[in-house]
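Researcher: First entry.
Model:
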Amino acid sequence: MRRADRLFRIVQYLRGRRLTTAAQLAQWLKVSERTIYRDIRDLSLSGTPVEGEAGVGYRLRGGFELPPLMFELEEIEALTLGARMVEAWSSPELGAAAVSAIAKIATALPAERRTWIEASRTFVPQFHIPKQLGERFEHMRSAIRERRKIQFVYADAARKLSERRVRPLSLYFWGEHWTLAAWCESRDDFRSFRLDRIIRLQVTAEHFVDETGRRLADYIRAQQAMAPPRETPSNGPDRARGRSTP
């Protein structure tokens, strides 16, 4: 990658995030952190309003704008494929939003690039997700957004049923199954639940707030601490990184 292209991408990453570390930029751009530090310094000297410091992270000061960008072929292909995956594997509401987003992107493209979307030959079958699972997904997504507790009956791998009341934190897709990451009040610990094993889901009127030790960030740290080296996503469903869902 040319240095000019790398500097441009750094600015794009910084403008789209609240705080980005040099380590993250180095990983995304496949260069050393030392190179990133040098690039950040040069951007600052050129007048780009980069704020932050080494070891903490960087961001662009508000109000800084770049000229409108044009998508390349691979970027359009990635967006189209992503929208088709969302349409096929999530809820009807989110799928419709993905299709709408691609349509809006298409209207902003020149005619010759708009045909790239229509010519894309990457497809995702749309008959894998039962209708009721899509509806369940949407209820959970709403509960996560509104921070409302949910309760349900869960069937484990042995089809043993248990009643649960949880704080929904996030949804994860493992290629075949969606799982809900949650703080389980019934077990007083983090748990992961496969959506296709959840029965009689009810979104309650009770809201919850972030508490240290029960937040999404804590869940992710717990997963990372339990994960063996080179763990693959196939180990994910029904587990919170090595912790079963009894």
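Researcher: Second entry.
Model:
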Amino acid sequence: MLAYFNKRKAEKLHEQAMGLSDEGREDEALALYYKALALDELRANTHYNIGLIYKYQGVWDKSFDHNMRAQELKPKLEAAIWNLGIAATALGRWKDARDAWIKYGVKMEPGESAPEMDFGLSVVRLFKPDGGGETVWVRRIDPARARIINVPLPDSGYRYHDLVLHDGAPNGSRIVDGQEYNVFDVLDLFSPSDYSTYSVSVLAESEEDVDALDEMAEENGLIVEDWSANYRNLCKACSEGRVDDNHEHDQDLESADWNPERALGIAAQKEDELSRLLERWASGRREVTGVECTLSAERH
């Protein structure tokens, strides 16, 4: 009889904790979840919810433990298996990560090493300190890690070739050339790159001038991003869903008229390599009007 009442009380505490979590009161929610487990330790959903909170807080050891327990108690709880894989990846527990992905249904071999695969192109959202989020292209190397292949804006705190840990549930999509790509939220920086971000202002009379700089940079291992053309502010609904091209935004892509004043982001490993590139490029109608290292690799 006591066990029955404990289970009932644990269920009520679980429901109250869910309400607190919905309000963003995660620490209070955790306290109630733990009280629920003290009464009924076999609650798989409570372990999962605790692991979920710790995932978003970046407390990876506790997220791992609770997701592991949740899937032990409920072996077909797919969300717990996936989050176990993310937590194991964050901790570098590669055998556990591989085992989780395989159990979920991902095709890979078991082993002790970090997966290095090709999961194709996708998009991730980089959360900024001000609460905003920039989306950039990545190439995924396993179910939870991806390498940035754009040059993000410096206020994102991320750089070209950073390896990021991302969530598993898509939060929006982007359609390019008729193909839809999922948007995944970044959870953490997994491994920093050795590229710094330089904000470069130039005068370029045509798009071909910027293309020429891009080609010259690629030949020398540098990456150019035309922020003037590629950056677009979206409302929350479009950012976290599908972009509605009929929906006006505060700052859309540039107008059809070419503006010779370009704001570029350039990723370079060495400043002297960037200087040589810009010296080669600048001639006649092309001019470099400003160069600043706005996110150094040393900051990581």
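Model: Note on the second entry: Strands lie at 121-127, 133-140, 145-148, 163-166, 173-176, 179-191, 196-203, 223-226, 261-268, 287-295.
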